[in-house]
Amino acid sequence: MEKHYLNSLFDPSSISILINSQKPQSPQSCEAIFLKLFEEAQYAGAIERIDVSANLDLSNKGTKAKGLAIIALPPEELCSALDIAGRLKHRAALLISTGINKMLGEELKELAKHYGIKLLGPNSLGFQRPHRHLNASVLGDLANPGPLALIAQSGALTSAMLDWAKTNGVGFSFVAAVGQHTSVDIAQLLDFLGNDAKTQSIVLYLEGITNSRKFMSALRAAANIKPVIVLKSGHKPAGNEAAKTHCGSVVGTDAVFDAAIRRAGAVRVKSFVELFSAAKCLASSYRPVGNKLAVITNGGGPGVLAADRISENNLLLAKLSIETIEKLQPNLSPLASLENLVDLSEDATAEQYCEAIKAANSDANVDGILVLFSPKPSIDGLKIATSIADVKKRINKPLLSCWMGDSSVVEGRSLLANANIPTFRTPEAAVGAFGNISSFYANQKLLQQTPPPLSKSSSPDIDGAKLIIENVLASRRTVLTEMESKALLSAFHIPITQTVLAKNVNEAIMIANQIGYPVVLKIDSPDISHKSDVNGVALDVMNSIGVRDIYGHMMQTVSRLAPEAKINGITVQKMVRNKRGREIYIGLVNEEPFGPVIAFGAGGTMIELLNDQSMELPPLNQYLAQQLISRSRIAQTLKEWRGAPAVNVEAIEHILLRVSEMACELPQLLEMDINPIIVDESGAIAVDARIAISHSHGLNNSQSGLYQHLAILPYPHQYESLFPLKDGSEYSIRPIHPDDADMLKAFYKTLSAESRYFRFISNSPELPPSMAAKFTLIDYDREMALVALIHETSLLEDGTWQESEKIIGVSRYSTNPDKASCEFSLVISDDYGGQGIGSRMMTSIMEVARDKGLSEIDGLVLSKNPAMLKLMRSLGFTVETMEDDPDFKLVRKKL
Fold first, then answer.
1. pLDDT at residue 816 is higher than 90
2. Which pLDDT does position 752 carry in this prediction?
């Protein structure tokens, strides 16, 4: 089987170039530019030219499959040329073209699908594979080989990036410019590059996303293997006038995209300058390890500028340990200062720079090193640069440099760049570049989170919540009243203030007397989004007379200011008065293409003005909820604040997790605004809520349709089950989780050499950490892995008993490129063979695949593994001999 299904496109065995000799092209045409650049790159593989205007023999259907067909003809000739490529059995095709409309684009994609062709284009300026001397593009000269991959939805930006790379010594493993209506899309390119051995890091420029689930799935998979930097154009103006809640007006598409990229484990940059800076670091093969940056300088001013920017970027200025300072001090000038910055003094020599770099590299408090140099008339900057380039070979932490100035430092900068040391003109740019690669380290922790969709304890009343939504939609409304909104929150165990609707003044007085004064009166209308705007809120109403007077005045005022609004009455609730409490808001919005997003920040009537927004995509777990809170500005006031004790943060986390459950289980939620929530040391309570819903999503009533509205699938708890063993004990089967990595490595060690070889075609005694991470951090949308577990009890040295879990089997499938079939694998512990566990795990994994809509499951089994072949036959699989490799049998079964 192929290493990757796009190998035929990007690593072709041969290339056919389709030309039209009857229509000579101008020197400015795509065809002429492509042919010139292609020939200059000196591709060494097999090349064939096919003249589409000639009388070609297309009748031989038995022709062996060909490699890549490259078509750079005018738009009106693309369909006929692609048809010829298909009939000649080409496995892949590249259409170099621009300005192709959606209708022609769909026609070309359907034609490619008919012939089973992997198609890059239309509206693509092509791709480059520098290490193969393959320039299949009109982007300019072939880039230098290197470890960096570039994907861009803009040909102009791609050309500019390649031009910049030439002068900055940056090389590429892969370059592709893709436009609208392309067949092989961004997600598939990310899939390919995630598995490409030549690519160590990826830079991605986006202008738009269509399928968020597919994009997030591919981005998460790629970012789990190698760093991914994303630049996206297009920003939504703040303040959406059509929003039905405060949250809807505060949250913008750009901020949602930030949250999505962060959750995927990638890093977003906001400008071309940042993109180039990040590219420098990635091209140097630096891997992020933390956020503590040591600054080594020969001038206090530049060092302070760097320190300021470190603080602004939420990084930490690394301080050398006492032990490191004691060892380093004797090798430096008496004027050197090592307290915060490593200031070597103005007369710093090359030897002193090197000693400081080596000391910082060996210090555990340092994650990265920034070397600053300010030119001095008596100091040889080139000699210092030469020494740093030499010492770089002997250190293992990211090393960045900033050679300030211009004419006198040009040679030094060039020398450092050639030594693969990222070099910048300003301290701020250097710190920003380190901040970008450091963000990757932080975002990887978010990527590891696989939250469950629902709490295991205190399950919400989902059926009751669905009834509320169905009743509102049945009455042809999309905005819930405050009473309905609070009832929905209550169904998910979110603490709310007791609220009762009064239809007239007498009811309001009786309710207030029962609740107890002071009370709050609020207008109740589905047509009024912000009650304060129409004087529809009265606080601290102290007695019956106050209720009577305010009720009548409020009804008159609202009727005058909002004459078209339907008024249900006025709600009465207990006044929540806590001088030491903080007001926060928690909201939810649906933003295309990512679906629901949870927002958190400072609440109250000035929410839009404060614009304190921190966002995260559901589902959440406790760690993600904590990170969401910590990113907000109000987080600083939740601790001890001006005499007030720290609030109960766990109560906020509880509400966030419950809102996450609502987002997962109720796809019809369009906007939600819980504001304010009063939180203090004793807990949190929702004072007001407003919810808008939509007809666009159906409620989750079937297992196969669960969570299709989410960009990130939650942990699929519905596939958990329990089965008996022959000795009377039990084992459980459940989906694999990132936390299972250590258990999986332990399971691998228990396997016999034969079992390891049968499953992994390897006799390695240990499963590498990278493979354990790959096997456990999976995307449940494209693959599934089930583990069989038993519980063990062991006696510790202190006389106590400890319970633990142990993996005894793993089954998994990965969806094939056709999205209709999947490939499986299975391994069972040698100690538990013959107990029917393998059969049960295969049945379970097939049930999951069937539930996902897949129609066929297949796999490769070693011919020398008769036990597995016997199991496959017993489960109804067909067994076929592999013509290309007789060591394997192909087994398959219709689902």
1. no
2. 85
DSSP labels for 776-805?
HS--TTTEEEEEEEEEEEEE-TTS-EEEEE
Q: Does pLDDT of 800 surpass 60?
A: yes
How many DSSP H helices and E strands does the chain contain? Answer: 28, 35
Q: Residue 517 pLDDT > 70, yes or no?
A: yes
Q: What CATH number was assigned to the domain covering residues 451-497+576-714?
A: 3.30.470.20
Spatial CB neighbours of 312, under 8 Å, sequence gap ≥ 6: none
Q: Which residues contact 409 (CB under 8 A, 6 or more apart)?
A: 373, 375, 381, 403
State both tokens at 219.
Answer: 């981005």
Q: Do residues 888 and 882 make contact, with C-beta atoms less than 8 angstroms apart?
A: yes
Q: Which part of the chain has CATH 3.40.50.720?
A: 1-140
When the candidates are 3.40.50.920, 3.40.50.261, 3.40.50.720, 2.60.40.1270, the CATH number that belongs to 286-447 is 3.40.50.261
What's the CA angle centered on 97, arms 92 and 103, to 5 degrees?
85
Instruction: Give the pLDDT of residue 22.
Output: 84
pLDDT in tens, 528-561: 877 888 889 998 899 999 999 999 999 999 999 9
How many C-beta atoms lie closer than 10 Å to residue 375's C-beta?
A: 17
List the one residue out of 646, 842, 651, 782 whose CA is nearest residue 194.
Answer: 782
CB atoms within 10 A of CB 664: 24
**What is the C-alpha to C-alpha distance for residues 569 and 416, in angstroms, rounded to an integer?**
73
CA distance 396 to 363: 12
As given in the structure block, the two tokens for residue 488 are 């929905």
Confidence of residue 657 (pLDDT cuts 50, 70, 90): very high
β-pairing, 569-574 with 519-524?
Answer: antiparallel
Buried b (16+ CB within 10 A) or exposed e, 264-279: bbbbbbeeeebbbbbb
**Is the distance from CB of 809 to CB of 841 less than 8 angstroms?**
yes
> Which class is domain 717-894?
alpha beta
Q: What confidence category does residue 243 fall into, taking pLDDT thresholds of 50, 70 and 90?
A: very low
**Residue type at 251 in one-letter notation:** V
76-80: average pLDDT: 91
Q: How far is CA 359 from CA 330, 343, 345, 395, 416, in A?
A: 12, 14, 17, 10, 20
Three-state secondary structure of 411-478: HHHHHHHHCCCCEECCHHHHHHHHHHHHHHHHHHHHHCCCCCCCCCCCCCCHHHHHHHHHHHHHCCCC
Could you give the CA distance from residue 593 to residue 588 in angstroms, rounded to a whole number? 15
Residue 699: per-residue pLDDT: 44
Using 50, 70 and 90 to split pLDDT, how confident is the model at 629? very high
CA gap 422, 433 in Å, rounded: 9
Q: How many residues does the chain have?
A: 895
Q: Residue 273 belongs to what H/E stretch? A: helix 272-283
Which ranges in the chain are annotated with CATH 3.40.50.261? 286-447
- Diameter of the chain by CA atoms? 98
- Distances from the Cα of 633 to the Cαs of 29, 224, 614, in angstroms? 54, 29, 9
* 206-217 pLDDT per residue, tens: 887 877 888 888
DSSP 680: E
Q: Which helix (H) or strand (E) holds 556?
A: helix 544-561
| 704 vs 490, higher pLDDT | 490
Cα–Cα distance, 96 to 89 (Å, whole number):
20
Residues of the chain with CATH 3.40.630.30: 717-894
Give me the CATH code for the 1-140 domain, please: 3.40.50.720
- Mean pLDDT for 428-432 is 90
Q: How confident is the model at residue 693 (pLDDT cuts 50, 70, 90)?
A: very high
**pLDDT in the model for residue 448:** 67
| Whole-number Cα distances in Å, 851 to 90, 591, 776, 840, 871 | 34, 28, 21, 16, 22
